[in-house]
Amino acid sequence: MNDFVDFKTVRGHVIPAEEISVVSSFNRRRVEFLLSNGYAFLALPLPGYETKLVGWCGEKLKDLLEAEGVKLEDFKGEYPEFTSKGGFRVADIPFDFKNLRYEVRNRDAEFEFFLPKGCFATTFLREFLKEE
Description:
By secondary structure, the protein is α+β, with helices and mostly antiparallel strands. It has 3 helices and 7 strands. It has a domain of 91 residues: TruD, catalytic domain (Pseudouridine synthase, 2-Layer Sandwich). The strands form 2 sheets. Strands 1, 2, 3, 4 and 5 form a 5-stranded antiparallel beta sheet that branches. A two-stranded antiparallel ribbon has the order 6-7. A hairpin with a 3-residue loop joins β1 and β2.
């Protein structure tokens, strides 16, 4: 209970809808069905001055912030570019491998793919560069 989920939308690619819902006793069975069939994703909070520390993930985030000596109000500052009200990101990367295209020529490789907001293409590509 009190977990957060986001739901899948498809606009040419699988992307999170960015419509966060709280799992409750009322919707738990439906959410579990959607999670098991790839239509919903666990969402985790990004810390910010408006973040509500609820549920197990809120407790973990609270512990982490305390260990680092950071308070949620520290995310609100004089300069907007250093201010964050917080938000959510899906914990899973909803990657559609059917839309991954790549071509290797000699020692060069060209990739074509889509990742939703909050996913890092450099991290994804680094996995291809790892040596055995």
